[in-house]
User: What shape does this take?
Amino acid sequence: MKLKLLFFFSLFVTGIGFSQEHIIRGYVVDDDNGEPVPFEKVLLIPTNKSQQILGATTAVDGLFSIAKVPMGTYLLRIASFEYKLYEKEIIVKDSKGISEISINLVHPDGKNIGEVEISGETRQKTTEVLMSVIKLDKKGLERIPSVGGENDVVAAFSVTPGVVTTGDQGGQLYVRGGTPIQNKVLLDGMTVYNPFHSIGFFSIFETELVQNVDIYTGGFDAKYGGRISSVMDITYRDGNKKEIGGKVSVSPFLGKLVLEGPLKRNQKGSGGSSFIFAGKQSLLDYTSKTLYRSVNDGKGLPYNFTDLYGKVTFASGQGSKFSAFGFNNNDNVDYFGVATLGFKQSGAGFNFALVPSGSPTVIHGHLNLSRFETNFAEVGSFERTSKIQGSDLGFDFTYYLKNEGRIDYGLNLNIFGTDFLTYNEYATKITSKNNSTEIGAYITYKYVSTRLVIQPGLRVQAYASLGTISVEPRLGIKYNATDRFRLKLSGGRYTQNFTSASSDKDVVNLFNGLLSAPVDVQGEFVTPNGTVKNPKNGLQIAYHAIFGGEYDLSNSLSLNIETYYKYFPQLSNINTFKLYDDVADFSDKPDIQKKDFLIESGQSYGADVLLKYSKNRIFLWGVYSLGYSQRWNGFENYFPVFDRRHNVNLVGSYLFGAKKDLELNVRWNLGSGLPYTPTVGFYQQETFDDGVTTDYTTSNTNGIQYVMGEFNSKRLPYYHRLDITVKKRFIFANKSQLEAVAGVTNAYNRNNIFYVNRVTNEKVYQFPIMPSLGLSYNF
Assistant: This one.
């Protein structure tokens, strides 16, 4: 019944447009390849000087809409550093209706690589809240030092304010007090369950295909649901609709092929169709024994992964399009007899954008199917496994208002199943297998004036398998105090039906299983102030409150400061105190000793500072994050494994030469020590298989067990690393380009701890100094 009401509500809002004043709507593409051009400022300048100049910014799909345009004659103008000036006369003869326009932007002759550009974030500073969000395109990603000649999205995420990373290996990222499973990662609308490979340099994403990356570290609006910490929303390009092109690259780390081109060539005013194929294969298991003999006593680097991606797109000349895509990822690592870790991931789906000619509402939709499974095993312990598979159906509607205001609303249906197996420190088996259904609906409204941007929103998330409906208000506000200084705040309520059961056995955590919120939790939970609650399930809940300010010190230098507080009234975690099975024979035992999962609570708070400078040849990025995270398990407070107090990221990029074809990139990261639980003793676990006649002095069937000290009471040493990359580009007459990349990872050979096997005390370290040389050819 609720879905029917939402459907009729959607039709009602869509129909509102027929009674509004005239609308100018357009679709902007790059003339070279037919790709949509995002984040370009479009001005509508009236010839009547008494009328107001109107404007809009193109969305990531190249669409823009200017509402409530009075009758008259206008000059539509797009001025950009990257494209030639575009101007066109527009005559509005009717007080109502929609005027459609297709725009092809042309690059100027003799355009230099690395030309100064105005970023999408700069254009939107006064019309978007932009709280706790970093916006990057392909060029932004390429400024961050690459490893083995390959830039990657993971590098961008790891230098984002408020983000803590486990380092070179493991591929885990923690955002402002949230665990990896609390980060939502989207690729063209599809949820990606594990975006990072075990070797922490690389994700499953292909930088060459990236159109835009939005990284939200908190306070995100009602469009995003099902996660309580952060969102990374990645949009891929559709592919070149004019000619065949691509990229081939090779380095000691991996080999890669990207191929794209038209299925039907784009002509001015028409859409065309295109294809994309991308594949990469790690080469470290072949090259490292020769090139990096000093690593792991000459054993090399034990990483092996394969990524495949394909996409076809059919587009109209007015912005409507349909895309179908699929991907497959495999990852395996063997830590030389200490531990093994791997995952398999695959998915397929389609998405579409519909721009109805008679309605001001733009419709987006998607249907996705995906599967993910992972396993982890270490010497002296049992194998842990986790599987998830499911489908997601969603529709999003956008109705444009005056002065870049808008109404967004939509709904989605998510069905998935999980299967999880692990063991706690007492070797007690913990399993969870169930199916879940989620239904979400949201609406947001953005009001824009000269000084204010106000964006209230509401999301309703129904968890059918838990019998719970969560009402989640959201709010974002920006005040443009001056042309250079802006204040902003955001916050809201967030929930998720996913839990990650991390093992307390790892000094640095490697395994994060995926499972839906458990219902097998304790009957009573005592809060830190002594209040007793009766949780019905393990649904995770968070409240965000963020306040900050932006100050443009100059046209090239900007400062962004944010303070945040995240309160987690309910979290679910694996029960490390479990001793008994939850069966009738142990009905007299307390829940804390027999339930698989425990309810916890917690809080995280801190401040993030971002100083950014960009002008001509130089780009500088400085980040300092101060963070505090604490959890309460019903008995005591403790520091979670990601509680890093201080984190610093410094990134610099400089272009040399008259053609700006020589580039130097540098990144230095410093992080204070992460907490871990020390091992205080060892013992032999004896099961007395022969009863009272068992000779415990000679029996050794179960190996050595260990006694752990106070939970997370110790800190690892400080982590720090310097990476340097030098790129040289050779540009040929046919616009093809050869790029040579030389790099050094961990340039001063810092010995950073990564993993310790508690039973054998064998250690695995982060990477030592690793030089590399890569070549890529773009055509």
Observations:
- The longest helix spans residues 2-16.
- The domain at 2-105 is CATH 2.60.40.10 (Immunoglobulin-like).
